[in-house]
Amino acid sequence: MAAQLRLRSALALVTGAGSGLGRAISQRLAREGALVVAGDRDGAAAEGTIRLLEGMGSEAGSGPRCHAAFQVDVAEAGAVQGLIEQIQACFSRPPSVVVSCAGIIRDEFLLRMPEDYWDEVIAVNLKGTFLVTQAAARALVSNGCGGSIINISSIIGKVGNLGQTNYAASKAGVAGMTSSVALELGRHGIRCNSILPGFIITPMTKKVPQKVLDQITARIPMGHLGVPEDVADVVAFLASDDSGYITGTTVEVTGGLFM
Ligand code: NAP
């Protein structure tokens, strides 16, 4: 089936774009016609994503007609602000689609959880999402343009998981923050939603022992783990005008797990 071009005039920023979900999301948004800015703390990985986008998304409006990669650590306020400024300098506008996908795990049971595991996960997953959302929203509001902000949370933020007190807290925080952002920014024409993926096959889940993945799979009504494209499809919908009256919500992409 021919790809729709629902994002023909969009400039999309995707963080964590060098791997897994972020890479698949970048590809999907580009196929929909968006210009994509791939941000990752691994700049070479972000460049690798951009190479996969060649020939896609050249329909976008003003500014340069090619995708771009930037190295950025989303946990650093100055780096995030610098990224938004660089994007505006390059493209003469802020990103109208902003996908916060950068995330990490540092798993350990509560009784053994070192403080730095807690701090690192909160810094990247929660504070990083806050910093990207805030910097992008400030630019969108001051430019008087609307937009769609999509934050990748996790079903674990809703149901919890063994060994993931830090991760679950960070992802619950992302969902709560997203609702508040939606309340504040609706009047500026900016929507903000979060996605709660279940277990999706990426480098992150490759760290989970196969035995555990088999146990999880047995509980998934759809009978299999997800693939990054399952999440990317929903991001494309939330980024587009097809979801123009949807804000402040969470969309579970879990194959029915934990419904
Ligand atoms: P992934 O393959 O590990 O990709 C995450 C990417 O984010 C990596 O390229 C990583 O770079 C980058 N990153 C990490 N910290 C960063 C930082 N401080 N600044 C900028 N980039 C940073 O993981 P994934 O599975 O695609 O996960 C993507 C998002 O989906 C995460 O937020 C994750 O929590 C969420 N999620 C995933 C699943 C799943 O089943 N896969 C389920 C629910 C939610 P490095 O490789 O250098 O760390």
Short descriptors:
single chain; 259 residues; alpha/beta; seven-stranded parallel β-sheet; 8 helices; binds NADP nicotinamide-adenine-dinucleotide phosphate
Question: What can you tell me about this protein's structure?
Answer:
- It is a single chain.
- The protein is of the alpha/beta class.
- It contains 8 helices and 7 strands.
- The protein has helices at residues 20-31, 43-52, 77-91, 115-143, 156-159, 165-185, 210-218, 228-239, and strands at 11-15, 35-40, 68-71, 97-100, 147-152, 190-197, 250-253.
- The protein has a 7-stranded parallel sheet with strand order 3-2-1-4-5-6-7, sandwiched between helices.
- Helix 1 crosses helix 8.
- The two termini are 31 Å apart.
- The relative contact order is 0.14.
- NADP nicotinamide-adenine-dinucleotide phosphate binds next to helix 1 and helix 4.
Q: What is the number of E strands?
A: 7
**What portion of the residues fall into strands of 2 or more residues?**
5-15%
Determine the number of helices (DSSP H or I, runs of at least 4 residues): 8
Shape estimate = globular
CA distance, first residue to last residue = 31 Å
- What is the topology, as strand order, of the major beta sheet? 3-2-1-4-5-6-7
Describe the biggest sheet?
7 strands, parallel
Helix/strand class: alpha/beta
Percent in helix: 40-55%
What is the alpha-carbon Rg in Å? 17 Å
Mean pLDDT, all residues: 95
Low-confidence stretches: 59-63
Bound molecules: NADP nicotinamide-adenine-dinucleotide phosphate
> What's the helix-strand series?
EHEHEHEHEHHEHHE
